[in-house]
């Protein structure tokens, strides 16, 4: 019996002495105690939570090397590996988690939209519900600050830059010919349907080192990764028809869109200033195929369109008008893969091919060009930690441009160029805390056509001033080769260059957003030539220069007034250039000093309708008055346009849509054309350059056919 008691006593004593006490204190980086943090040994039931003083203590029977974990919401998880006997009187500091929604965002120069964006300025569906956009990406983006109103063109002019200075990417791969061809005083449109995309990033400056060959801006369009349902979309419009279909399988899906536009019926009802021999007609189609793999996503995207029209336009130098005829075919395809290599490494790879063909007849001149272009890209990402992410990669651009020209006096001649560019880039995101973050990068490019090597540094930082506001700065150098209308005649030039300096303030509250951004851009090595238009015999150099500076404001509010969503944007631009055939440094004729946009959308529940409006104002643009001394010595009158739209929900899957652009019929003037020779009084007669049509009416009926009864055309409102 005594032996049994002795054995039990030794056993109990051994069990008591085998228990180890783990204790300590948990604070933040400022030394303030964290209350309620979870503290435990991994893969055990042993643990505790911290008290009001940040203290914790618990017992464990575990021995040897163990893993202690401390976690708390909005803080990075702390991990300690060691012998439990040394886990006493610990002092643990938790760092804030930089991936939380209230963390600082690198946003200088960038407008982002989509489900994955922390700051939504423009939603993808705003493209189809903004009155003045008429379903075009560019039309919707032109209501944002930083853009310039060039109504007769239709492309994106950003912060004193020409339209060629903005590049467009689909799923990270370059689009070489993003716009449909057009003629004078008839704005172009983007080629691609907004319904296939769910993410928009519009960078008006200071963008990532990943992107090059763009002096002013990049527009990133991301196709939908995974459609939510199978459906068929049917659209019948006053100017044509659309048809779309989406099919889903286990790990793959495909979406197809087709569109036919013909302006003949519209022009018959609402004649414009042109004498149309063959009204504008276009047939287009797009498709996106997606395939999920165990570690990533494969996407294949393709788009094709063909356009043709013929007309006679008013021209002061031709009493019978100027004959213009165009036929265009365009093909764009890209493929991409994005996936994880392991827990820390991921990669992105893609390739695109563009084929464009234009056949243009202007009076007795016959011009035909072919452009074939390839973009190949490979990018790696290493998530070293929550606070440090490294990106690096390489890409290759190849462009083959050929053109032929003939007229009554010149037999057919051929000319063109090959432009091959190799680039490498590296960039790092560094989060010091939830309040302070940096992005620093470097891009290097070699241009074969010029035998030129450039290095472009990029840097941006952001500091969170409060829970709802932050300040951002950005700096970068950017290079871009001259456009085809220059390179096809002369290749003895240099890459054009800009330097961006940006300061940004942003306030982001519940359904309210305010941005103010000041910037300065310096241009160097711009192309100059000595004739009115570039030609074989022109003299070219890269001695041009210029600057652009200004401030942009943006306010969006969908909270203050029930069922009403609106935004205001204003831009002030001060810019001058000495380039092309300019006699002196002057404000270019595509730049407005003041630009204002007001957009509103109101849902009327009793009417099952959304009504909207979009008002645009732009101060006058410069032009040269040949009857007065000086260069670009006058300005046009201010531009005004009020557009309205109305959408009526017939049923959950059927919607009737109507819009009118420039409903008040403002007589806007884009500039003036002067006669080639003066009249008997020595005066140069002129003709106002006005839009071909003062107003545009659009009516459409859209029907979604789906087995999912939750599918609702109201989502598009």
Automatic annotation (TrEMBL):
Signal peptide positions are: 1-18
Keyword GTP-binding tagged: no
- Protein topology in the membrane: Multi-pass membrane protein
Location of this chain's protein in the cell:
Cell outer membrane
| Positions of the TonB-dependent receptor plug domain | 135-214
UniProt keywords (A-Z) are: Cell outer membrane, Membrane, Receptor, Signal, TonB box, Transmembrane, Transmembrane beta strand, Transport
What protein family does this chain belong to? Answer: Belongs to the TonB-dependent receptor family.
**Can you name this protein?**
TonB-dependent receptor domain-containing protein
The species this protein belongs to is Hwangdonia seohaensis
């Amino acid at each position: 019996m005594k032996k049994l008691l002795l054995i039990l006593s030794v056993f109990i004593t051994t069990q008591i002495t085998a228990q180890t006490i783990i204790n300590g204190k948990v604070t933040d980086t400022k030394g303030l105690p964290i209350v309620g943090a979870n503290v435990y040994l991994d893969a055990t039931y042993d643990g505790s939570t911290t008290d009001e003083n940040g203290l914790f203590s618990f017992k464990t029977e575990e021995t040897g090397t163990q893993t202690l974990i401390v976690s708390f919401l909005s803080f990075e998880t702390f991990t300690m590996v060691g012998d439990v006997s040394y886990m006493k009187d610990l002092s643990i500091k938790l760092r804030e988690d930089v991936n939380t929604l209230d963390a600082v965002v690198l946003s200088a120069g960038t407008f982002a939209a989509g489900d994955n964006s922390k700051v939504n300025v423009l939603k993808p569906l705003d493209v189809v519900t903004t009155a003045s956009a008429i379903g075009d990406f560019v039309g919707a983006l032109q209501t944002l600050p930083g853009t310039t109103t060039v109504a007769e063109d239709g492309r994106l002019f950003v912060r004193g830059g020409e339209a060629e200075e903005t590049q467009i990417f689909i799923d990270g791969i370059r689009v070489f010919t993003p716009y449909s061809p057009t003629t004078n005083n008839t704005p172009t449109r983007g080629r691609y349907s907004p319904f296939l995309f769910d993410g928009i990033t519009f960078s008006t400056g200071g963008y990532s080192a990943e992107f090059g060959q763009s002096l002013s801006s990049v527009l990133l369009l991301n196709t939908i990764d995974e459609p939510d349902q199978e459906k068929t979309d049917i659209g019948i419009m006053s100017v044509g028809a659309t048809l779309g279909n989406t099919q889903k399988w286990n790990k793959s899906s495909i979406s197809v869109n087709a569109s036919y536009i013909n302006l003949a019926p519209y022009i018959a009802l609402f004649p414009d200033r042109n004498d149309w021999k063959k009204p504008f007609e276009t047939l287009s189609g797009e498709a996106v195929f997606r395939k999920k793999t165990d570690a990533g996503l494969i996407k294949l995207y393709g788009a094709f369109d063909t356009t043709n029209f013929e007309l006679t336009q008013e021209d002061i130098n031709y009493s019978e008008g100027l004959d213009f005829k165009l036929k265009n075919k365009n093909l764009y395809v890209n493929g991409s893969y994005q996936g994880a290599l392991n827990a820390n490494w991921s990669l992105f790879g893609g390739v695109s091919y563009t084929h464009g063909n234009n056949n243009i007849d202007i009076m007795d001149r016959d011009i035909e060009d072919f452009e074939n272009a390839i973009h190949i890209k490979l990018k790696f990402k290493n998530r070293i930690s929550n606070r440090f992410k490294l990106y690096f990669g390489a890409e290759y651009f190849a462009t083959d441009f050929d053109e032929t020209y003939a007229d009554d006096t010149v037999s057919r001649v051929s000319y063109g160029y090959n432009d091959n560019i190799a680039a490498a880039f590296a960039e790092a995101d560094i989060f010091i805390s939830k309040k302070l973050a940096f992005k620093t990068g470097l891009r290097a490019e070699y241009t074969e056509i010029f035998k030129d090597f450039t290095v472009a540094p990029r840097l941006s930082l952001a500091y969170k001033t409060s829970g709802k506001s932050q300040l951002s700065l950005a700096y970068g150098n950017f290079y871009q080769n001259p456009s085809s209308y220059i390179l096809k005649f002369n290749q003895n030039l240099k890459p054009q260059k800009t330097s961006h300096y940006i300061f940004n303030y942003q306030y982001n509250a519940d359904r309210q957003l305010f941005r103010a951004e000041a910037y300065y851009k310096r241009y160097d090595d711009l192309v100059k030539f000595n004739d009115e238009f570039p030609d074989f015999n022109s003299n070219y150099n890269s001695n041009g220069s210029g600057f652009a500076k200004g401030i942009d404001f943006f306010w969006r509010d969908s909270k203050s007034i029930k069922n009403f969503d609106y935004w205001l944007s204003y831009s002030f631009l001060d810019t001058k250039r000495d380039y092309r055939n300019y006699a002196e440094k002057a404000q270019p004729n595509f730049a407005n000093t003041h630009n204002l946009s007001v957009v509103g959308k109101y849902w009327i529940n009793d009417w099952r309708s959304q009504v909207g409006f979009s008002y645009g104002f732009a101060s006058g643009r410069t032009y040269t008055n040949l009857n007065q001394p000086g260069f670009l010595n006058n300005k046009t009158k201010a531009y005004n346009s009020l557009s309205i739209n109305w959408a009526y929900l017939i049923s959950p899957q059927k919607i009737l849509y109507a819009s009118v652009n420039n409903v008040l019929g403002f007589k806007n003037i884009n500039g003036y054309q002067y006669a080639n020779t003066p009249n008997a009084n020595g005066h140069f007669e002129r003709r106002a350059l006005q839009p071909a049509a003062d107003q545009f009416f659009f009516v459409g009926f859209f029907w979604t056919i789906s087995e999912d009864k939750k599918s609702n055309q109201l989502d598009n409102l």
